[in-house]
Amino acid sequence: MPAVVEVKNLSKSIGELNLFSDLNFSLELGTKTGLIAKNGIGKTTLLNILAGNEDYNSGTIKFLTGYKVGYLPQEPCINDESNILNAIFHSENPTLNLIKEYESALESNNTGLIEKLTLQIDNLKAWDFETKVRQILSQLGIHDLNHSVKELSGGQKKRVALASVLVENPDILILDEPTNHLDIHAISWLEEFLKRSSVTLLMVTHDRYFLDRVCNEIFELDNFTMYAYKGNYSYFLEKRLERIELKQKEIDKAENQLRKEEEWMRRMPKARGTKAKYRIENFYGLKDIASQKTRDDKVKINIAGNRLGSKILVASKINFSWSGVKFLDDFSYTFSRYEKIGILGENGCGKSTFLELLTGKLNPETGKLETGETIKFGYYRQQGIMFDEKMRVIDAVTEVAETITLGDGKVITAMQFLNQFLFPPARQHDYIYKLSGGEKRRLYLCTILMQNPNFLILDEPTNDLDIATLEVLEDYLHGFPGCVLVVSHDRYFLDEVVEHVFIFEGKGKIKDFPGNYTQYYDWKLQNEKEKQQKKQPEKKEKPKYQADQKKLSFKEKFEYDQLSVEIEKLEKEKTELENLLSSGSLNDSLLLEKSKHIGELIGIIEEKTNRWLELAEKAGE
Question: How many structural domains comprise the chain?
């Protein structure tokens, strides 16, 4: 496969901070690559450089001529004065501009313009593309294209920015944390979209299931070196461990040889011949190898929790509505010691509102909420806190507490605690505005945990944290001596941490499911399958000799033949409809009706064609 992106000897430093030096890597056509590194190493900076949004110190970056690049930054910048329609269709692509005009004409019911644009779309044969754009917007929960951007939440703006990149249909796609702010349905759809796409992909994400299912290559940026692994995330974990073990053996061998050479260096005569000079050079080479390290610097979390009494939190028939929308309907639950609960539901169903009610930030309309006397909440909010960017890291922490009690009863200073959260002394005295997005989230987590809570509420804790920190947080939560309540769209994190889940089903209804995310998802699929089977008439059992044959049943053969006829008829209807739309003979109401119908027709043809292909494959044709 040809390389569509080639990077040679790339170096970048910010002030005295050296992010990476002499990086060399390439992206082959059609590969799906995940970039993994700790927070603060320079992942986002590297993506910004590749997208042409940031300068670098030295090196070369070469893109294959004629390939279009699409980039989703971690914090998208969208014009607040525009509406969603303009924010998404801002490309110079003529087809996109045509679809933008068409969508706008449909929204305003401008039949004269619809007639004109219909003819142009027909001439460009762009109806399929228009349908694809509608599907992308729908799957990302974007429906009202006239909605003002400034009224959107941060998560909604991220989805609009993602839609904007995808509809441009780039050849090379660079994504920085694309799953942040997406619900599980949208993440699953994006997974399938990227897997089917022929786009060349480079992305940074903390979502380990997403990495495993989408990527066929992993880049790891570690100790100023880029390592490439030709496989998915599971393969990367296996091969990375092998790499570290081999490196450690090399270091151990060098250390053993170094001890002998050090003794020789001490006894070496002043007259140095050629052989002695070679041995001296070898000595310094061994010294360099022996001084290398393979240990991982990881966050250390060992916080004492306040004592938890017998009464924790009791919700009795809680009701809550906002702007006519029911978020809680007679919710009752008694929280128990040490339980770890996940919360699942689509965006906007009231998950964050639920947390605000439990912590007393909002009051229920009716019902009663009783909180135990010993409860001390640690509430990690999705939006984080607004740090004073001009404060130093150490000052932000000492404002919360100057000493922290650990799980073993030991008391340490704020400076020592920051060290455990991978903020060395030099970094502690940096201003907060110099921190990366992930480092700010890690600092926020630090300020929550250092208060020794016994009831942890985590609202999207995985956003912008690196995978190494997530693994340590997961381990900590396993042994946390209190209650944990987690809202997250990170399926891996939920599987690792929670024991049961609250499912927000809509209209204020909450289902308590006894299991983690994967167990719930498997149960849901099985439940839906059984419902479908009940709707279908019972099938007669096939003769045993047919059981292993990969051939069509009589019913499937009939369906296969019928689909061929139906698809041909639908294609004919589509052609007639396109001709009718471009004829100029329709009145305003018919023109609007037919314009909407052609999009539906394309979707039906696509669905029936997929089924026909499935049956054709089974028939061996």
Answer: 4
Q: What is the pLDDT of residues 86-143, one digit of tens each?
A: 888 876 777 778 888 888 888 788 888 888 888 888 877 777 777 777 788 888 888 8
Give the other-Cβ count within 10 Å of 145's Cβ.
Answer: 19
Same domain, residue pair 322 and 408:
yes
Tokens standing for residue 138: 């729908």
Which sign does the torsion angle of CA 183, 189, 191, 197 carry?
negative
- Specify the 3-state DSSP secondary structure of 463: coil
405: nearest Cα among 468, 481, 485: 481
Boundaries of domain holding 273: 254-292
Looking at the DSSP assignment, which residues form a beta bridge with residue 201? 32, 173
Burial state string for 248-270 with b = 16 or more CB within 10 A and e = fewer than 16: eeebeebeeebeebeeeeeeeee
Give 228-280 pLDDT, tens digit per residue: 999 999 999 899 888 888 877 777 676 677 666 666 666 665 545 554 555 56
User: Full-prediction pTM beyond 0.85?
Assistant: no
Residue type, 518: T
Query: Is 302 a member of any domain?
Result: no
Task: Judge contact between 383 and 156, C-beta under 8 A.
Answer: no
Using only C-alpha atoms, the chain has a radius of gyration, in whole angstroms, of 29
Q: β-strands 3-14, 17-28: how paired?
A: antiparallel
Give CA–CA dist 157/497, Å, rounded.
29
